[in-house]
Records
---
Amino acid sequence: MELGIVETSSTLMTDFLQKCGGYAVVDGGFATELERHGADLNDPLWSAKCLFSSPHLVRKLLFSTAFLSCWSMTEYSCLIRQVHLDYLHAGASIIITASYQVFLIFIIQLYYTSLSEEEAELLLRRSVEIACEAREIYFDKCTEGSSDYIESGNISRRPVLVAASIGSYGAYLADGSDGKYGDAVTLKTLKDFHRRRLQILAKSGADLIAFETIPNKLEAKAYAELLEEEETNIPAWFSFNSKDGINVVSGDSILECASIADSCKRAVAVGINCTPPRFIHGLVLSIQKATSKPIVIYPNSGETYNAGLKQWTKSSGVVVDEDFVSYIGKWREAGASLFGGCCRTTPNTIRAISRVLSKCP
Ligand SMILES: [Zn+2]
């Protein structure tokens, strides 16, 4: 049985890419889109994907008692589902759940006792359900007669995968340590921290796990070991974070990090996210030296988050959507096959990526 699961896992991404024509589009940033649809981004959960929220904000959130019922019931669910739908309509074939944000609930649950473990786990599962609901709605719309989806009289719809996001321990630390966790944080610390979340998300109905914004090789190793120990029934991708285009954010070698993912049987793609576009090409070339697994890249807009000002600021590396997509051909030539966007990218970015890729030979 075990062998069967691993075999199915290992071919999920290659089979998917084959069905998609050799490359696939991943979705884009979440926070900006939620804001556009009316979410209040002062709530730290929404901005958590890139902004490591501070403990006092978490405490503030604790007293926002309306939060849990909103999230699990109606308003926020609708907003999140709408953002997933926007990305599907923009051409994304992989949508990533909002569970990166939800994991902050676990911090609250751990340090304050106002939420039960069951309630916290419910929120995680709900993040996957919402993405799956969006996929169903999208498929229903596609089959409602749009000629775009009818080929030779048959309904042709591209496959869509739901990836359950797991964020790093660094986001929990919220201390700007850039993945330098120190000697006190061991492999065991990291495995203990991530185990329950992985168990829940692996059985949530998602197609794969997206380990995102991994800052160091210790955390990559923890994920690889957890996947094996838990005999996880769905595969995962390992996506690292870099600030200099040479190493991952902690200073560990991207080659070593990618090698850890490469030797993990349940890893089906390796890549980079939340990193400025100008660094991606070199990183893809490095990753290619360590693995023949598909390479996933979803850079941010190139803007920098200023924690002091609590806002995104433009830097010399900022690219508009047209410029962002001008990199795509180069990234594809270098060996990447899954393309999307992270913080501050929008459905317009994803639409532009889809358009460029559809013209690639
Ligand atoms: Zn990001």
---
Amino acid sequence: MGGLSWRIAEEADIAAITALQLRAIEELQKPFLTPAQIESSKKTMGLDTQLISDRTYFMIIADGAPANTFAGCGGWGRRATLFGGSHSAGRSDAFLDPKTAPARIRAMYTSPDFTRRGVGKLLLALGEFAASEEGFSKMTLGSTLAGAPLYEAAGFRATSRDEDPAGDGMNVPVITMEKPIDRAGAAAVIAAATGEVNAETVKRLAVARAT
Ligand SMILES: CC(C)(COP(=O)(O)OP(=O)(O)OC[C@H]1O[C@@H](n2cnc3c(N)ncnc32)[C@H](O)[C@@H]1OP(=O)(O)O)[C@@H](O)C(=O)NCCC(=O)NCCS
């Protein structure tokens, strides 16, 4: 690994994020879903702009990449919504209690040009570490079939499965998965991927929380 850096997403990134997510949805789900299922999956995927307002969404940049070219984007949630974009049904902006509820891992997308280089793993570790900074001890997420291998490799385990979350009969599964937060493990992944020392990550996340 190595060769990656991160920053907090900003409102000005929304066009780039939307384009990256659409490519990932359309290209990277092809081994798992039919074209009609991929179209249906757009109802329950995409950007929830609340994550940008909350400063809990990350942009990943590969060393040497041209300006405004991102290797991936993804984040975490301190609110109840488990998955979906701003347009998706069933959202809830209610704040979670870190003492009892699991933090959410949200909207994880790698550019098709940067797959299998640890971008998803870094995004997960950033979300895990940031959630730990706010007192959470567990994480949960709603996974696509394309996302499940990443989450299983990172230690998530499935707890339930919804076969038709869009309610359109297209049978696009969403798998609910959970994992205890491993702060030291997340810090090690971030350090290996970016070279950033842990204290710097803590500082940058604190700045994001204050803005
Ligand atoms: C899921 C996704 C973000 C994974 O991104 P990625 O950056 O390629 O993943 P990583 O390189 O960090 O993978 C880390 C590990 O996860 C596992 N993994 C990831 N993608 C995998 C795949 N397609 N098949 C098998 N294992 C996979 C592997 O163990 C991998 O380690 P390795 O490459 O050393 O074998 C990406 O495929 C994607 O954007 N998919 C479409 C959108 C989507 O479904 N997002 C998930 C929403 S819940």
---
Amino acid sequence: MTEQPITMFARGLALGELYQGLRLNSMALLEAIRQGAITDADIPGLRDRHDHWEAEFRRIRDEEPQNIAATLHQLMDSAIRWHQANDKQARKVRCSEGCAHCCKLHTGITEAEGVLLRIIAARKGIHIDRARLARQAGVRLRNWHELDAPDRRCVFLGADDRCKVYAHRPMACRKYFVTSKPSACSTDDGINSQVTVFVAWNAEIVYSAAVSVFGLGGMADMLFPPPAEADLT
Ligand code: SF4
């Protein structure tokens, strides 16, 4: 991997895009390849890791969803810690506690994470604004900024701009780091600005493999998915 800043817009995700046999469910990885920070020589190693994690996730697919989500979060945190200890680029991250600009962006989660969030909300008595979720449902990354500003706020973001489910936040929230000005992530002006991100590629590989096995949807769609047909009969 080369030390190169990766710029990106918060736009659509190319789920499952293939690059030399590597399934890319991570927009950050895709941009890192497009912009030359990840080179062709890096791909076989990444593909091996991806295959490894996919096999592991297929093995645990039938476990309780909340346990699957907790496992994904542990793996994600451990991959990020590796970068923090070994990757000079990680020192350039400018995200800080209390900054909540990215909590007003579209967030993709797995169904297992949706189950975990519902359990935590019920356990902690966290009110989930179903009316706001209904307005967020079906709105994609590419047109997220068209929602009214209050409707862009994550339903778990408190009035004090702190995450009410921080220890259980989804993978997408754990791995998003910017090296540009944090305020550039803001969508308050209705504009999708360009940001420079730190790509924790070890974490992105875990994420991409998890999405391959468990799928992904907008938080609004995954928190309260419609019941499966079999449950209605
Ligand atoms: S779950 Fe927490 S960290 Fe993630 S977007 Fe919502 S408020 Fe922010």
